[in-house]
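Field notebook, page 357. I keep forgetting to write these up properly, so this time I am using the form the group agreed on. The chain and the ligand, threonylcarbamoyladenylate, are recorded exactly as supplied. Prediction of the bound pose follows.
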Amino acid sequence: MKTAVYHLDPGKPAAELVQEKAIQEAAAILQRGGLVAFPTETVYGLGADATNPRAVAGIFLAKGRPADNPLIVHIATWEDFLALAAEVPPQAADLAELFWPGPLTMVVRRSPKIPDAVTAGLETVGIRMPAHPVALAMLRVAGVPVAAPSANRSGSPSPTRGEDVLVDLDGRIDLLLDAGPTGVGLESTVLDLTTPVPTILRPGGVTREELGRVLPQVQLDPGLTGQEKPRSPGMKYRHYAPRAELLLVEGDNVEALARRVKELARQKKQAGLRVGIMATAETLPLYQELEEEGILLRVVGERKDLRTVAARLFALLREMDRLQCHTILAEAVPEKGIGLAIMNRLRKAAGGKVVHA
Ligand code: TXA
Ligand code: MG
């Protein structure tokens, strides 16, 4: 299969984008059961018509995704949500008002319109309204709900740039809508509204603190803290992972943490490995001398604004793979705000390789 690529201006409003040939074509492909990769404000998604089980099966095939991992359904209007939820939880309207369009997925009981292929047989479905104008324009013209996981081969870091989608899926999908880098950089927050207390199944772009503005109570799925089996099927796999080994260095004191990173980097280097450090703007000066020793240094973002770390994390993991690093050293960040989602992804990518400073 040949993958067509269209470049779109992310600055144009959805109302103008709907006129463009690229959007019309993407919509036509979705309507006839094909696969379209498209930008959202979080990461690129790989979309298919959510009401067409054969189209949805194509997503699993293209990604190499385990069949027991359900997909998020993307919509453009609140009416779409009402049509796809069998029951509308009491908090849903307020959450939508505040966070949609945006990086929040609400898990609700599914209507019979959603086939088993989307939910992996679960009686619930995750639904979200993305904030990217290209995604909204495509959804409007297609006129169908679009099931879409992140547009990577299963297990790899999610793509935050069109190039990254092509590295994983060129030749496996019909079309890519490339609108440059996404904004948030990490996936949406998955919030289960079918539990007595709303439960965060996956931390993401909308923070726990922000949810607290609408929800008197919100809990983290015990699976996230490693106490129990995660209830979001996707959270049980090694995930978001580069090919390189990733070591996550934790510690409350940033300087001690950086010293440990430095020590480990030198050890690995001496063992003959190619080593990359994901520094932060604040710790970079502490590592500078390592560059002359042949250790790769990159800044992922600023500790004083963790949104910058979220935005670049996946792209940097992919870059370190391209540069053929054997080992990547990553610094832990405080688990506040978006830091909770960053640490969740880093822990997954590390697959248990966590070191204490
Ligand atoms: O930001 C995002 O959410 C991106 C963009 C493309 O929208 N999508 C995304 O999809 O990250 P995916 O498939 O890579 O991750 C979906 C996550 C998985 O962990 C999955 O298990 C969980 O959501 N999920 C989906 N439906 C669910 C359900 N009914 N119950 C529990 N977890 C669900
Ligand atoms: Mg994914």
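OBSERVATIONS:
- The longest strand covers residues 44-49.
- The pocket of magnesium ion (ligand 2) is lined by residues 149-150, 158 (CB under 6 Å).
FOLLOW-UP: compare against the apo run.
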